[in-house]
Amino acid sequence: WMWCSALLGMCTKFAEVTLAVHFRERSATGEWVGGPMYYIKNGLGKHWQFLAVLYSLFGVLTVFGTGNATQVNTIVAAIDTALTEFNVVGQNALSTLNLVVGIVVAMLVAMVLLGGIKRIGSVSERLVPFMALFYIVLAVGVVILNIQHFPAVIEAVFAGAFNPAAFTGGTIGSLFISMQKGVSRGIFSNEAGLGSAPIAAAAAQTNSPVRQGLVSMTGTFIDTIIICTLTGLSIVLTGAWQVEGLEGVQVTTYAFQHGLPIPGQISAFVLMICLVFFAFTTILGWDYYSERCLEYLTNGHKKTILTYRWLYILAVFIGPYMTVSAVWTIADIFNGLMAIPNMIALFALSGVIVKETKAFFAAEKHKM
């Protein structure tokens, strides 16, 4: 179901980014700004302004969900798992450790965010490619070294997707639960349909909305079709999904520990580094999205935005003390809230997308 969400998500990502670049506008500082609130405002007219306000409000509130608490919780879980493997700390000391980790992460986030948007970009550019490539190499290693189980795994994947009752003991509605989990995790990984990616894409130095849409949709393919598939295969190939008592980062850690020919402590440490980089850069990116939404609501009021930035930094402390199920539930709720006004706008402006796309490919064909 993650694959299904990714294939549809590529179409969604293309549509929303194309609209974001098409309807973007210059801010008071001369920067390009765009996203769902702007293509609702400039594309649908004043009678639909409430949708733009709703989207911006939900985008601001993600400080407590997708972009902050969930990511910090992942960082804390990854560090706890790695240090426990090394026997550095016991279970009784984890609460103190989580507080220390929360303080350190909050300080690092503050150093980047208070340095301005340009510093966010420079930090992300250095961390994300290295982290993603390193993670892919490790996951591919797990798959190759356990390739003998691959046919059985593919069979289990499809059986679990279409006949999940076989794995859940006949739970009523298990098919819909399986579908919901797969789609929600797919959307969480690639953000297709949420309208967050178009906010960043609108700032791109390009004159072609369709070209930018085509570039952006590749991110969905990489995030979900490649990285998430490798993660899922690693978990199923090693049997990590069947180990009771594991949740969140612990499941992937188990898969890497039992799937790679290296000491379990080292694989746990390497995975921790990858996940910390992943989550940290996501925290920075979502602050950018949220601040753009707040700029729309407040007409760029600087003091309000600075206050929100400090609130975002302080909210880092919430994540370490929430359960895995709680942070994912909150993330799913906010994802759904953001998607509703955005998807309404995409359907309403589908004619613009079709017109832009036809004009782009006609021009490309003429060049040939």
A few lines on this structure:
The chain is an all-alpha fold and 368 residues long.
Polypeptide structure, described:
By secondary structure, the chain is mainly α. The chain has helices at 2-22, 36-44, 49-61, 69-85, 94-113, 117-145, 150-162, 165-168, 174-190, 196-201, 209-237, 249-259, 264-298, 302-314, 324-348, 350-367, and strands at 25-26, 32-33. The model has no long low-confidence stretch (mean pLDDT 79).
- Shape descriptor reads globular
Q: Evaluate the radius of gyration.
A: 21 Å
* Content of β-strand: under 5%
Number of helices: 16
Summarize the biggest pleated sheet: 2 strands, antiparallel
Across the major sheet, the strand order is 1-2
Q: Order of SSEs, N→C?
A: HEEHHHHHHHHHHHHHHH
Q: What's the β-strand tally?
A: 2
Helix content: over 70%
Structural class: mainly alpha
Distance between the termini: 39 Å
Mean pLDDT: 79
Low-confidence stretches: none
Tell me the layout of helices and strands:
Layout: H1 2-22, E1 25-26, E2 32-33, H2 36-44, H3 49-61, H4 69-85, H5 94-113, H6 117-145, H7 150-162, H8 165-168, H9 174-190, H10 196-201, H11 209-237, H12 249-259, H13 264-298, H14 302-314, H15 324-348, H16 350-367
Antiparallel strand pairs: 1-2
Helix pairs in contact: 1-9, 1-11, 2-3, 2-15, 3-13, 3-15, 4-5, 4-13, 4-15, 5-13, 5-14, 6-11, 6-13, 11-12, 12-13, 13-14
